[in-house]
Write a structure and sequence with these properties.
The protein is α/β, with parallel strands linked by helices and about 160 residues long. It has one domain: UDP-galactose 4-epimerase, domain 1. The strands form four sheets. It has a two-stranded parallel sheet with strand order 1-6. Strands 2-5 form a two-stranded parallel ribbon. Strands 3-8 form a two-stranded parallel ribbon. The chain is elongated. The chain starts with a helix and ends with a helix. About 30% of the residues are buried.
């Protein structure tokens, strides 16, 4: 922002809310929760158990990559300046995330809650500014997971 002020140029900053989708990072510790849970479910047998950090009540919002790209495009072609949040307005608990993945995988999965870095319980994230461009998230979590899980499962099988 300071550089923009000094040089008389418009600055747009896209602030992302937990982007996920096929072709994304799915292992190695830097992946977002949807990808990590997809990987865990792909690795476990039907009827198996996966570990989830915390008690499963932490609330998050996850934005499918196609929605994110559309938001970036609209932001860059808008008159908005400064930081603009781009995120899906659907908020789910970690346990709800796992249950969405169970639907996509078709498996019966059990959850074992373990100690781990949960950080904040929930975040507030306003999309009001990006909505002025006409942007709306098209993918709810169950729709994005239905696209993401098969891709991550295929990656797990290739290993």
């Amino acid at each position: 922002m300071a550089c923009g002020h000094r040089n008389g140029m418009q600055v747009r900053i896209a602030c992302f809310q937990n982007c996920y989708g096929p072709q994304g990072t799915w292992r190695g510790g830097r992946e977002k929760a949807p990808a990590a849970i997809c990987r865990k479910e792909a690795e476990v047998e039907d009827g198996g158990t996966i570990e989830v950090w915390g008690d499963g009540t932490a609330i998050r919002s996850y934005t499918y990559v196609d929605d994110m790209v559309k938001g970036i495009y609209l932001l860059m072609h808008s008159d908005l300046e400064g930081p603009v949040n781009i995120g899906c307005p659907e908020y789910v608990s970690m346990d709800e995330l796992v249950h969405s993945l169970v639907e996509a995988s078709g498996k019966t999965i059990h959850i074992r809650h373990i100690e781990g870095p949960v950080r904040v319980q929930s975040r507030n994230f306003s999309n009001t500014r990006i909505y002025t461009t006409g942007w709306q998230a098209k993918y709810l979590l169950k729709d994005g997971i239905a696209q993401t899980y098969p891709w991550i499962e295929s990656q797990v099988r290739k290993r």
